Amino acid sequence: MSVDISRARGDVVVLAGGTGGAKLARGMLDVVEDPSRLVVIANTGDDIEIYGAHVSPDPDLVSFWLADQIDERGWGLRDDTFAVMDALRELGREVWFNLGDRDLAWCVERARMRDEDGLGPTAALARLNEAIGVHARVLPMCDDPVRTWIGTTAGWRPFQEFMIRQRAEGLVEGLEFRGAEQAKPSAEVLAAIAGAHAIVIGPSNPLASIAPILAVPGIHEALLAAPAPVVAVSPIVGGEVLKGPTAAFMAFAALELSADGVADFYGELLDGIVADESVGRLPTLQTDTRMGDAPARARLAEQVLGFADALAG
C-alpha cells in the first residue's frame, strides 16, 4: 500500500521521540510513495556525551528503524556485539550506559565529524544515514545543545541517568530542558514544517520526548502557523502506556492518562487526534493504535495520513 503525495503541497513530517515515534515513522516509510518526502524531526534532549562519543538516542533510534537495522531488543543495531563495553568493565570502568560496538562506532564518527569536519548534528546525521541507505530525512530538533533534566526525590538527573541508573523510579517532581532558551531550530526543520502536507506528532511521551522539541524557540510558533493539519497519535492504549514512564510524566503535569490528557497537553497545536478512544472536543480518528508488526504500523500510518487529508479538506 502507498499514499501518493507527489502532487501534494509538500512532505509528511513526523515529530518523534522514543520507540512509539520511531515505529510510526517506519510505518510511514511503507505508505509514503517517495521516501525523500518523509521528514522526521527527532528529540535531542536525551543526548549524552560518553566514551568519547556523541550519543543521540532518539534520532538514531529513528534512523535504525528506517534502515531496518533495529535490534529486537528495541534499541541499537541488530546483532551488534558488546566487546568494547566488556573490555571497559575488565579495565575497571563502570559501564552503566550500554552501547554495542557498531552503535559506538556510529556515535564516535558523529563526534569526529563535529570536532574535525565542523559539522553540526543535522549535517552529521545526514551523512551517517546516507551510509546506511536511509533516504528519508531525519532532522535533529536543533543543532544547539539542549538537555532534558528530571527532578525526583533523589535530586536532579540528566534524562539518561534518570532512565538507566535510576530506572525511572520515584515521582517526577521537575522537568527542565536546559539550553532550550538559547537554542534555535535549524533551517531544515523550519522549512519542513512550513512546506508540509501533513504534520504528525508520534505516539511518544508528550512531556519527555515531544516537549523538548516544542521548547526550542520558533518550533511551536512554526507549527501553529503551518498550513498543514497537525495530528497527534496518542501513546495511551487501553488506558495504559505500552512502554516507558509516560504515566509518571503525565501525573507530574496533572494530566489525565488518556487521549483527553494528551489533547490537553498539546492544546491549540492540534487539528485532530488519533486514539483508541474518542476525544469529544477534537476531531478524532478512533482506531487501534498498537503497532505490533509491520502490517499494523503501515495500517496506522495510512489511516493517520488519510485522517490528515480529510482535515485539510
Q: Please, could you describe this protein's structure?
A:
This protein is α/β, with parallel strands linked by helices and 313 residues long. The protein has one domain (11-312): CofD-like domains (Rossmann fold), CATH 3.40.50.10680. The chain contains twelve helices and 14 strands. The protein has helices at residues 18-31, 57-66, 83-90, 101-115, 121-131, 159-165, 187-194, 206-215, 219-225, 246-252, 259-266, 294-312, and strands at 11-16, 38-42, 48-50, 53-55, 137-140, 147-152, 155-158, 174-178, 196-201, 230-233, 236-237, 240-241, 272-275, 284-286. Strands 5-2-1-9-10-13-14 form a seven-stranded parallel β-sheet, with helices on both faces. A three-stranded antiparallel β-sheet has the order 7-6-8. The chain is globular and about 60 Å long. Residues 1-8 have low confidence and may be disordered.
